[in-house]
Amino acid sequence: MKQILFLLAALWSSSLVLQAQRPRFHFDTIHPDVHDPAMAQGEDGRYYIFSTGMGIGCISSPDLKTWQPEKPVLSTIPQWATDSIQGYRGHTWAPDISKHNGLWLMYYSCSTFGKNGSAIGLATNKTLDPKSPNYKWEDQGPVIVSHQHADPYNCIDPNLIVDEKGTPWLAFGSFWDGIQIVRLKKDFKTLASKPKTISRRTGRKVTLAEIDNIEHYTIEGNDTIETGDNAVEAPFIIKNGKYYYLFVSFDYCCRGERSTYRTVVGRSKNVAGPYVDKKGQPMEKGGGDTLIGPNNEFFGAGHNSAYQLSGQWYFLCHAYEKTHNGQAKMFLRKMHFDKEGWPVIDPFL
Prior knowledge:
- The protein is mainly beta.
- The protein has helices at about 1-20, 80-85, 210-215, and strands at about 40, 45-50, 55, 55-60, 70, 90-100, 105-110, 120-125, 140-145, 160, 170, 180-185, 195-200, 215-220, 225, 230-240, 245-250, 260-270, 290, 300-310, 310-320, 325-335, 345.
- The protein is built from 3 helices and 23 strands.
- The strands form 6 sheets. A 5-stranded antiparallel β-sheet has the order 3-6-7-8-9. Strands 1-2-4-5 form a 4-stranded antiparallel β-sheet, with no helix packed on it. A 4-stranded antiparallel β-sheet has the order 10-11-12-13, with no helix packed on it.
- The longest helix has 20 residues, at about 1-20.
């Protein structure tokens, strides 16, 4: 008995030492940590940024400069998601937020690293103001699901775009056969078409047989890519003037100082593409112009969104900052379009 008590005391003491050594997280009100951010301005005038996290992370600001943490979006993890996505336990990725027909629509990703057994769900709310009596996120279930060894795409990183005719489209995708777009019905949830690839890195279609059965395969230029390693993800589509612009992220996130993320862009007069870069290279064949990426300040910068608020365009992403040892920090800047109609990130907010 004494030996058991001694062992328990030793374990308790070791736990205290580890807790003392582990740095405590302090929320940075000026330069917050975020991952895969999406933004909207609520009915209360505040700006809300939603991001990857347990139950979907949320922060808010009155002026885009000083931020405070808010409660997670999903107070209860949807049962359908934990039942259908192996390994998913509530850490929810890459939300997308927009308002249509009086409702806020939030698409979100349920998945695990390195697998395309994934799902995109939808939650709705009448308001973003957590103080409002009408504030209540209601889960609407899955929108689209991808299955391992059955689908050549990965159902994560959703983004909703409504075209000039009022038709909703959902862009999504990560690695595998690249970025997809699918048309939705007017309920913003039911699929009205099959997924179509609009951006990939390989320059050609990646087949399910290659993904499942070949450890490595070769693409144009004798570059070797590992299975499921078509390094493109995080689509975001906006409309400005006569063009739709497709932003995607190339290379690798989530590796701290080894992150190599970069944001690239192409454009099209049709929401479903084809999207091309400044040289006319189609994005489904490897095209895309770099907008921001590794530089003197960042190891990488990507998974962006873009918005026009009160007539001003804003560019938002997360950046792995060198001065913060590769931590994923919020990167928010004003954005404009040059005389040729291409987006340019301003050096200030």
